[in-house]
């Protein structure tokens, strides 16, 4: 399903000879985009029919609204957003402007693509472990068909689900000894909230026990411990809700006002 299986030979990763249009890679990406399209369609239909788990999704929508209107400090006061804020899910600050402009459908589509990308990570891990392309393809396909992941994508928005594919990419970057990719994924995972620290610790222990990824395990556990300490000391959320934060609404208004002012300066004749 994920790979073109008519040819058992595949260009090795890092050889620089492959491209997205290569049949085997195109097949894998096609399944990712198809998964995103199907799951997003089902999620939008469900949402349009008002089949919504009120507390969870309404909490995120309320948080997005408060952030874009410049009321981030009220996240801890609103009962719908208090749990989200207390988990230090700073990713909502990045998603809020996008959702306010592109809508809820974009949020569903983005979530589906992030989860589907885990199939690509699994396939690449299979290559590193020297599995047959057919075996890697079957494992990746089973990942896409895993019911809990599909259900979590279709029903509302759950950023914690993103931890599944991100952990797979974290492991792949560690096995490839790619520090930059490893660091980016590790930092991004902290945006999913404090609950993912448990998964990070277990992943770090697994990397630590592997002789080829010992230092990646040390870096993982050290960074996770630092983030956990900052989160429980209350330093993470205030950083993202500092008093001088410029809201999206204020920024758009300033752009509109500047444009109106420049038009008046150009159109007003000089009487001096």
TrEMBL record:
Question: Which superkingdom?
Answer: Bacteria
Membrane-spanning intervals of the chain: 26-45, 90-123, 157-175, 182-209, 215-242
Report whether Nuclease shows up as a keyword of the record.
no
Protein name per Swiss-Prot or TrEMBL:
Glycosyltransferase RgtA/B/C/D-like domain-containing protein
The alphabetized UniProt keywords are: Membrane, Transmembrane, Transmembrane helix
Membrane as a keyword of this entry, yes or no, is yes
List, alphabetically, the InterPro entries matched: STSV1_Orf64
């Amino acid at each position: 399903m994920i790979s073109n299986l008519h040819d058992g030979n595949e260009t090795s990763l890092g050889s620089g000879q492959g491209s997205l249009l290569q049949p085997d890679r195109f097949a894998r990406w096609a399944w990712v985009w198809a998964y995103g399209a199907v799951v997003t369609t089902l999620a939008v239909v469900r949402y349009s029919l008002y089949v919504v788990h009120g507390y969870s999704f309404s909490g995120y929508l309320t948080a997005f609204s408060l952030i874009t209107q410049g009321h981030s400090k009220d996240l801890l006061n609103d009962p719908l957003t208090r749990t989200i804020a207390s988990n230090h899910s700073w990713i909502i600050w990045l998603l809020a402007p996008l959702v306010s402009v592109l809508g809820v459908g974009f949020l569903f589509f983005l979530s589906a693509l992030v989860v589907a990308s885990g199939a690509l990570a699994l396939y690449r891990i299979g290559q590193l472990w020297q599995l047959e392309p057919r075996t890697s393809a079957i494992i990746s396909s089973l990942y896409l068909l895993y019911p809990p992941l599909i259900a979590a994508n279709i029903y509302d928005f759950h950023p914690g689900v993103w931890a599944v594919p991100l952990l797979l990419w974290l492991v792949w970057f560690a096995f490839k000894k790619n520090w930059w990719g490893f660091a980016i994924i590790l930092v991004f995972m902290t945006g999913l909230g404090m609950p993912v620290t448990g998964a990070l610790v277990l992943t770090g222990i697994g990397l630590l026990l592997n002789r080829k990824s010992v230092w990646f395990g040390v870096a993982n556990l050290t960074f996770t411990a630092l983030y956990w300490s900052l989160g429980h000391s209350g330093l993470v959320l205030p950083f993202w809700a500092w008093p001088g934060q410029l809201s999206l609404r204020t920024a758009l208004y300033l752009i509109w006002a500047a444009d109106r002012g420049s038009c008046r300066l150009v159109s007003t004749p000089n009487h001096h």
